[in-house]
């Protein structure tokens, strides 16, 4: 873990007031990080010091020794809320390849560590203050309560799902009495082979607990005209989402957007990206809500500004530009922000954001949507004409 250049007085104050993670027994070569930075653990590593108070994301991936391949396992992460001078103590569990924080509940053990913190100091890496501003900009709307509500009951955010069979058939007799295909003859096709595999489900307690995106975007008893309108303007869907999941604090939906982004970009959880995409679609296509929720949409612009400024360069090519969803979604957002009744400050902020994205990514948000309609292509004489979708 590299050192951080800072004023000695500042470093002393941070050492005294910052929180400390004491992580014992983490195998050498493990990839471990906090917030937006990670390292490979060395032989002297015992934890991280000088951590600023607030919400943090600790993440790690176990690694095999070089002589047996050196492969890195899937990433595991957890959100921690730390107070000034907090000490969290964890021991590495080699069987589970995970950190066990139960020692933090032993007040006597924590007091002993606190008393010997000065001796432990040479083995503690400093918090990476060079990325602190970046981390804060990506999580300024994400509160401890929202993070606790969204992360799995297990407390661990895992890059790969922990799955178990839907039917626990531990004995041969159980399988014989079930209606599952028998495995005593060779498969005749790929489909037959897939049919023989047990149905799997995610282990209880390991699921991310995202807000449910309403499948029905229109109110009960809606007329055909209202159904059409509600499919173009997702304000009713947004209202339903907020009432069911963020009734007391509607702006917490921005914290959920940040949570989704963090668990994808830092935690490598693809489900986070999918939820980020669905949330973004509802927010950006809520035309009527844009006129009555000024602060929500001003906040959305700020959140997206920082998120789109921090993603890897190839991210757009590989994922974000998939189906052109981001440019088309934002095109709707910018179009609605120019509509009648929209707050002047919101309108101006949207115009600036649009100009920023156009300059940075060379996206054209003013392209006519009708450009995607079929066009008539002239063929050689005698061949007639054909309508070709471009």
Describe the structure.
The protein is of the alpha+beta class and 390 residues long. It folds into three domains: 8-139, Substrate Binding Domain Of DNAk, Chain A, domain 1; 163-202, no CATH class; 224-371, Alpha Horseshoe (Serine Threonine Protein Phosphatase 5, Tetratricopeptide repeat). The chain is built from 16 helices and 14 strands. It has helices spanning 8-17, 107-115, 117-120, 132-139, 144-150, 172-177, 190-196, 224-232, 235-245, 252-265, 270-284, 287-292, 294-310, 315-320, 325-337, 344-361; strands at 19-24, 31-34, 37-40, 47-51, 54-61, 76-82, 87-93, 98-100, 124-126, 157-158, 163-165, 200-202, 375-378, 385-388. It has a five-stranded mixed sheet with strand order 8-7-1-4-9. Helix 10 (252-265) runs antiparallel to helix 11 (270-284), helix 11 (270-284) packs parallel to helix 15 (325-337) and helix 13 packs parallel to helix 16 (344-361). The protein is globular, with a radius of gyration of 26 Å.
* Percent of residues in beta strands: 15-25%
**Count of all domains:** 3
- The multimeric state of the shown protein is single chain
Please provide the ordered H/E string of secondary-structure elements.
HEEEEEEEEHHEHHEEHHEHHHHHHHHHEE
Largest sheet features: 5 strands, mixed
Full CATH superfamily name of the largest domain? Aar2, C-terminal domain-like
CATH architecture of the largest domain: Alpha Horseshoe
Please summarize what this structure is.
This is Protein AAR2 homolog. By secondary structure, this protein is of the alpha+beta class. It has three domains: 8-139, Substrate Binding Domain Of DNAk, Chain A, domain 1; 163-202, no CATH class; 224-371, Aar2, C-terminal domain-like (Serine Threonine Protein Phosphatase 5, Tetratricopeptide repeat, Alpha Horseshoe), CATH 1.25.40.
């Amino acid at each position: 873990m590299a050192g951080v250049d800072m004023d000695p007085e500042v470093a002393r104050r941070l050492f005294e007031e910052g929180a400390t993670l004491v992580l014992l027994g983490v195998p050498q070569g493990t990839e471990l990080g906090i917030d937006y930075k990670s390292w490979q653990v060395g032989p002297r590593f015992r934890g991280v010091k000088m951590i600023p108070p607030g919400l943090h994301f600790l993440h790690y991936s176990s690694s095999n020794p070089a002589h047996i391949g050196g492969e890195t396992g899937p990433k595991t992460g957890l959100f921690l809320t730390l107070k000034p001078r907090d000490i969290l103590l964890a021991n590495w569990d080699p069987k589970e390849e995970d950190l066990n924080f139960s020692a933090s509940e032993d007040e006597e053990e924590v007091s002993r560590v606190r008393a010997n913190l000065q001796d432990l100091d040479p083995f503690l890496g400093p918090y990476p203050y060079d990325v602190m501003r970046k981390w804060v900009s990506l999580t300024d709307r994400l509160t401890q309560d929202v993070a606790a509500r969204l992360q799995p009951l297990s407390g661990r955010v895992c890059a790969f799902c922990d799955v178990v069979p839907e039917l626990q058939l531990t004995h041969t007799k159980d399988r014989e009495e079930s209606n599952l295909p028998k495995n005593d003859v060779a498969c005749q096709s790929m489909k037959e082979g897939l049919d023989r595999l047990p149905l799997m489900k995610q282990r209880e307690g390991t699921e991310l607990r995202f807000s449910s995106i309403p499948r029905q975007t229109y109110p009960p008893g809606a007329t055909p005209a209202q159904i059409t309108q509600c499919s173009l303007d997702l304000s009713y869907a947004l209202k339903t989402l907020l009432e069911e999941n963020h009734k007391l604090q509607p702006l917490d939906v921005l914290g959920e957007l940040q949570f989704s982004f963090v668990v994808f970009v830092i935690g490598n959880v693809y489900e986070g990206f999918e939820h980020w995409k669905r949330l973004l679609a509802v927010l950006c296509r809520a035309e009527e809500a844009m006129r009555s929720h000024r602060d929500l949409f001003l906040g959305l612009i700020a959140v997206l500004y920082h998120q789109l400024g921090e993603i890897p360069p190839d991210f757009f090519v590989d994922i974000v530009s998939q189906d052109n969803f981001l440019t088309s979604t934002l095109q709707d957002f910018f179009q609605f922000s120019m509509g009648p009744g929209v707050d002047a400050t919101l309108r101006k902020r949207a115009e600036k954001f649009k100009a920023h994205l156009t300059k940075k990514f060379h996206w054209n948000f003013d392209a006519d949507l009708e450009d995607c309609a079929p066009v008539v292509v002239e063929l050689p004489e005698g061949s007639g004409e054909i309508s070709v979708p471009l």
